[in-house]
Specification:
Strands 2-1-3-4-6-5 form a 6-stranded parallel sheet, with helices on both faces. It is globular. The two termini are 18 Å apart. The protein is built from 8 helices and 6 strands. Helix content is 41%, strand content 17%. It has a single domain, classed as 3-Layer(aba) Sandwich (Rossmann fold), CATH 3.40.50.970. The chain is α/β, with parallel strands linked by helices. Pfam families: TPP_enzyme_N.
């Protein structure tokens, strides 16, 4: 029997539980295909979570920053293409203004044969370049490759609070519908 904690598909229910444990009350998002199961679960109604859909990733960052300044604990959910889109806003909000935010970024376009391998080995630029981009920007990141990696969410919140800036959790594979 396969150990489910080593599967590249993390259950959406486990993500919800981990976010709840982190004290998250708001999910600010531009819907992401990789995290579609999480969106569906939240849209169906998860007690204690408010889902805020935004028009674009720049708006998501500024809404989450406002929530943070208002004493709330949001998480941003977007895909890798969206992170590329909002680099300047992340620079202004998280690097310059030092507002702590945690982003769950789905690795849209990642090849099945690249799961369990370094993302930098992907044949797709948007997957291959995201970790070097985050390194260049000085934005710490964690990899959510399996259910066993879910404690990285708590680490990301602690890190974002401690450093006063963004921390990214890269969601490697589509989340499971359980």
């Amino acid at each position: 029997m396969t150990d489910p904690s080593s599967s590249p598909s993390v259950p959406a229910s486990a993500c919800v539980a981990a976010l709840r444990q982190c004290g998250v009350g708001h999910v600010v998002t531009v819907p992401d295909w990789v995290q579609l199961a999480l969106h569906a679960r939240l849209e169906a109604g998860e007690e204690g979570f408010e889902l805020l859909n935004t028009c674009n990733e720049n708006q998501a960052v500024t809404v989450a920053a406002g929530l943070t300044l208002g004493g709330k604990r949001p998480v941003l959910v977007m895909q890798n293409q969206g992170l590329y889109n909002c680099v300047n806003t992340l620079r202004a909000i998280c690097l310059d203004s030092r507002i702590p935010l945690v982003l769950m970024v789905g690795q849209f376009g990642r090849e099945f044969d690249n799961f369990g391998q370094p993302a930098t080995g992907s044949r797709r630029n948007m997957v291959r370049l995201i970790e070097p981009l985050l390194d260049t920007l000085g934005i710490p990141f964690h990899r959510l490759d399996s259910e066993a990696d879910l404690p990285c969410l708590e680490k990301a919140y602690a890190q974002a609070t401690e450093t006063g800036g963004a921390v990214v959790v890269l969601v490697s594979a589509p989340l499971a519908w359980r």
